[in-house]
């Protein structure tokens, strides 16, 4: 981890904090869906939310399905391009199901807003979002997650699945990337 660590300004959520977040959110989700009587499907948004999703869903002791989607709103930079593409879509029908989208971070909110509309249009009974991180200061559209791990300031963060130019995903914590790394 040493070469990557040098690029981190400070740690925002260490491994203990991430575990606490997963415990708390899993408990909330379990309580909310325990008696729904409907099918529960987690839609995991690749790639950033994979570690978070793996840690979260293993703590939810309810029958559920796992589906994956890959979307993009960013190129290799750090600012939103304003449009979203679906690169990988669901492999099944979600009609009548309770869907919980698992996201890594909500920034402008554009990705999530588009995704929630898409899943609602496909006939889900309900669509909620669980995000590890939230940057409320950066919001450009009216969109909030139902379950939020942690609110963070307006800074570019990496680790625990989050990347900069496909790097740093394997850091076991979430940290602020030194601006010198992307201002080069
Ligand atoms: P939004 O559509 O602007 O809310 O962008 C959400 C997506 O942008 C996330 O799923 C991330 O892939 C990416 N993103 C936004 N902020 C960060 C960050 O600080 N670090 C890494 N990726 C980010
Ligand atoms: Mg990303």
Task: List its salient traits.
29% strand; 184 residues; binds magnesium ion; 9 strands; six-stranded mixed sheet; alpha/beta; three-stranded antiparallel sheet; Rossmann fold; 5 helices; binds inosinic acid
Any overview of this molecule?
This protein is an alpha/beta fold. It has a single domain (15-154), classed as 3-Layer(aba) Sandwich (Rossmann fold). Helix content is 26%, strand content 29%. It is built from five helices and nine strands, in the order αβαβαβββαββββα. It has helices spanning 2-5, 15-33, 50-57, 110-121, 179-182, and strands spanning 8-13, 40-46, 65-72, 85-88, 98-106, 126-134, 147-151, 157-158, 174-177. The strands form two sheets. Strands 4-3-2-5-6-7 form a six-stranded mixed beta sheet, sandwiched between helices. α4 links the parallel β5 and β6. α2 crosses α3 (50-57). The two termini are 21 Å apart. The model has no long low-confidence stretch (mean pLDDT 93). Magnesium ion (MG) binds at residues 48, 74, 163.
Please provide a brief summary of the model.
The protein has 184 residues and is α/β, with parallel strands linked by helices.
Percent of residues in β-strands:
25-35%
Radius of gyration: 16 Å
Shape: globular
Q: Describe the biggest sheet?
A: 6 strands, mixed
Reconstruct the topology from this structure.
Layout: H1 2-5, E1 8-13, H2 15-33, E2 40-46, H3 50-57, E3 65-72, E4 85-88, E5 98-106, H4 110-121, E6 126-134, E7 147-151, E8 157-158, E9 174-177, H5 179-182
Parallel strand pairs: 2-3, 2-5, 5-6, 6-7
Antiparallel strand pairs: 1-9, 3-4, 8-9
Helix pairs in contact: 2-3
């Amino acid at each position: 981890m040493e070469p990557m660590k040098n690029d981190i300004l400070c740690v925002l959520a260490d491994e203990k904090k991430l575990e606490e977040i997963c415990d708390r959110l899993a408990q909330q989700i379990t309580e909310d869906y325990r008696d729904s009587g409907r099918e529960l499907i987690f839609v995991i948004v690749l790639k950033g939310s994979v570690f978070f999703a793996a840690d979260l869903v293993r703590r939810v002791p309810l029958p559920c399905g796992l589906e994956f989607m890959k979307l993009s709103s960013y190129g290799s930079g750090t600012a939103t391009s304003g449009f979203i593409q679906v690169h990988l879509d669901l492999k099944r029908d979600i009609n009548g199901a309770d869907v919980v989208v698992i996201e890594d971070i909500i920034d402008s909110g554009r990705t999530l807003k588009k995704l929630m509309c898409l899943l609602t249009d496909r006939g889900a009974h309900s669509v909620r979002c669980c995000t590890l991180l939230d940057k409320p200061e950066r919001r450009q559209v009216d969109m909030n997650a139902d379950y939020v791990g942690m609110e963070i300031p307006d800074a570019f963060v990496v680790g625990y699945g989050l990347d900069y130019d496909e790097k740093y995903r394997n850091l076991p914590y979430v940290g602020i990337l030194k601006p010198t790394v992307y201002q080069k």
